[in-house]
């Protein structure tokens, strides 16, 4: 498991850093990464769609986890 720091999808330098993490992991294991999950706060609202699209373009997501579903 490689847990990266939170980042805004609008910060190109941070998104490039994610690409680099993926490349480095791929060099260690040609089949890696096996899963790429995006964790989002359920309270994010409609902006979550834009975030998921941007992250998917950058690192090709395999899943999504929503947190704080019990919030108001």
UniProtKB/TrEMBL annotation:
GO terms for molecular function: GTP binding; GTPase activity; signal recognition particle binding. It is found in: Cell membrane. It comes from Pseudomonas syringae pv. pisi str. 1704B. Keywords: GTP-binding, Membrane, Nucleotide-binding. It comes from the Bacteria. Belongs to the GTP-binding SRP family. It holds the Pfam family SRP54. It is a peripheral membrane protein. Transmembrane segments: none annotated. GO terms for biological process: SRP-dependent cotranslational protein targeting to membrane. InterPro entries: P-loop_NTPase, SRP54_GTPase_dom. One of its GO terms (cellular component) is plasma membrane. This is Signal recognition particle-docking protein FtsY. The lineage of its organism: Bacteria, Pseudomonadati, Pseudomonadota, Gammaproteobacteria, Pseudomonadales. Residues 1-72 form the SRP54-type proteins GTP-binding domain.
């Amino acid at each position: 498991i490689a847990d990266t720091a939170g980042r805004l999808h609008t910060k190109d330098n941070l998104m490039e850093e994610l690409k680099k993490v993926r490349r480095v992991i791929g060099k260690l294991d040609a089949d890696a990464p096996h899963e790429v999950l995006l964790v989002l706060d359920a309270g994010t609202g409609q902006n979550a769609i834009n975030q998921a699209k941007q992250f998917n373009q950058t690192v090709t997501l395999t899943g999504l986890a929503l947190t704080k579903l019990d919030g108001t």
